[in-house]
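Subject: Sanity check before I submit

Could someone independently write out the structure tokens for this chain? I want to compare against mine line by line before I put it in a report. The sequence has 367 residues.
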Amino acid sequence: MAIHSALVRPLSVAVSALGLLAAAAAVQAVPPGTYGAIQPFATVPATPGFPEGVAVQGNWVYVSGPARFGTAGTGPSAIQVYDRKTAALKATIGVEGEALAFEHALSNLAVDADGRLYALSTQLGLIRFTKQGQQYLQEAYGAPLPDLPTCTGGPPPCSPTVVDFPPLPNDLVFDADGYAYVSDSLQATIFRYPPGGGAPAIWFQSPLFEGGGFIPFGPNGLRLDPDREHLYLAVSSTFTHPALGTLYRLPLVDTPTAADLEVFHAYTAGEIPDQLAFGAQGELYVSLALTNQISMLALDGTELARFASAPGNDIPLDNPAGIAFDSRSKSLLVANHALLSGDPSHFALLKLYLGDPGDPLEAPDLP
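---
Independent answer below. Compare away.
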């Protein structure tokens, strides 16, 4: 793991104490509202199930799915809309226009300054939803990611991978200018959509991003740091060392180079780092899909703590995926993906109390 002096800031004694508390929270039950407590926020309907994306905006919490393979012949993808205060399910947004006889899925979500909701569809690309009364109007925003040949088979644009996989859009984050960055888990690429949408362009690629093992996902979670100087990326596994998952960072510039790529933290035991969220003071939270934990990293990349479900929790962490802060409850909301167990009783949104409102995500003013 590389430690970057530019990121290092003093950590308070309080944060260190919280890290010790987190370790205790991982092995014993704690009451709701206590630091480290993990409680259900809301259950997610079994159809379509397999929730991944979570976004918080205004009075609403949005959860998207299904994020899985094997959806050919099943119903449409959907976004569940929950009341932020009561956790009541208020609406289900069914995705229109999918060819249901073929694979179709939704991954992650984002919102803009007008409260419009953006979702990544494996078939449709980047789609946008605008609330009109009690309904949500769906429209195309960004074209689907291109299927790139491997670079061994021809000139750019190409995928710097050994295995020729189709695109798999995974996470989505906006910058202040309205560019949308999208991770492609199977083509070792980060794409970028221009403000207003349209066709995605390759922003950065690396052979280091090619995944391996039984879940060969490379690029996964994306977030901008609180200073909006860098984009952080979770690469879930590595082609040559499948148990290695790495968090990288890149400067937020138009054309980063290979020399700009820095390692922030490495997970070496097959944890599969998935999604990211920054706390208000700059600590980075990472969902670890395979070990059913939430990792907390200091500003220098050092791991401070891991949070896990306590024995006897009604709904345990089960392949946690999307994470997003709810500033009102000062909690981290966690999409319980349950991808490997497939247990419908585990499809849920969980709430990890941290006493932290989180770093607000960019919600740009878009056409």
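---
OP: Matches mine. For the report I'm noting this point. The longest strand covers residues 125-132.
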